[in-house]
TrEMBL record:
CDD domains: KPHMT-like. This is 3-methyl-2-oxobutanoate hydroxymethyltransferase. Its cofactor is Mg(2+). Belongs to the PanB family. 3-methyl-2-oxobutanoate binds at residues 45-46, 84, 114.
Length: 265
């Protein structure tokens, strides 16, 4: 199989071919997602929410991200694997940021890292890129800053924040990011950013004009049913189906229907 690289994504933008990206956090789902033909798997710090049950992404640690990422890597043959730098492992100190990125690359075998922020993250991004580590940016609703925003509402609806976001996107490109995520911003703004920079723009809740789309696997498969924003398209309802399956199993055990003659030695 031909592997997807950062160059592949750049060529896809130039060719107008949309980039598909989903999160994954473990070996088994990574296998499913990779074999289904996804371009990029993001080992997102959303693991803090959907894997660990935290309310925010802030508590997850670098060691925990490394555990998830190394599990994902073992399930993947084709797609590009990108890992989030978690909260507190890169902010405002480029030496620490580089050390965190190096740990991810060395200990997991992942292909790139992602971190949140614009201007304030540029020094760290440059340092990481200069070490040969590909970086994806993340602008708009950046969940690690949720206590600054105070709300998960759409970002950059006002002109000042929109102008800043456009400026930040340019800075990310100049700093050497090979792509950026735009989260929960108006579709028109995402379109303008996508047209104004040369690196691929991957949207989540950012409309159809981005170069690609990303969703959290647990949301789109209906494993996590507590989160239903307008931008989410839910393709399955695993929560419901798995609940029915478990109920059937419980019933089969209680009624001594399972195991039957064929299911024993
Ligand atoms: O952690 C995550 O899942 C993400 C995506 C929503 C972009 O950062
Ligand atoms: Na994230």
């Amino acid at each position: 199989v031909k592997r997807i690289t950062t160059n592949t994504l750049m060529m896809m933008k130039q060719a107008g071919e949309k980039i598909s990206m989903l999160t994954a956090y473990d070996y088994s789902f990574a296998r499913i997602i990779d074999s289904a033909g996804i371009d990029v798997i993001l080992v997102g710090d959303s693991a803090s929410n959907v894997m660990a049950g935290h309310e925010t992404t802030l508590p997850i640690t670098l060691d925990q991200m490394i555990y998830h990422a190394s599990s994902v890597i073992r399930g993947v043959q084709r797609c590009l694997v990108v890992v989030d730098l978690p909260f507190g492992t890169y902010q405002s100190n480029s030496e620490i940021a580089l050390a965190s990125a190096i740990r991810i690359m060395k200990e997991t075998g992942a292909h790139a890292i992602k971190l949140e922020g614009g201007e304030e993250a540029i020094e760290s991004i440059k340092k990481i890129v200069s070490a040969g580590i590909p970086v994806i940016g993340h602008l708009g609703l950046t969940p690690q800053s949720i206590y600054k925003f105070g709300t998960y509402a759409v970002r950059a609806k006002e002109e000042a924040e929109a102008a800043k976001l456009k400026e930040d996107a340019k800075l990310l490109e100049e700093a050497g990011c090979f792509a950026t995520v735009l989260e929960k911003i108006p579709a028109q703004l995402a379109k303008e950013v996508t047209e104004s920079i040369h690196i691929p723009v991957i949207g989540i809740g950012a409309g159809k004009h981005c170069d690609g789309q990303v969703l959290v696997m647990h949301d789109m498969l209906g494993i996590n049913t507590e989160f239903k924003p307008k931008f989410l398209r839910q393709y399955l309802n695993i929560f419901e189906q798995a609940t029915e399956a478990v109920k059937s199993y419980v019933n089969d055990v209680k009624t001594n229907d399972f195991p039957n003659e064929k299911e024993q030695y």
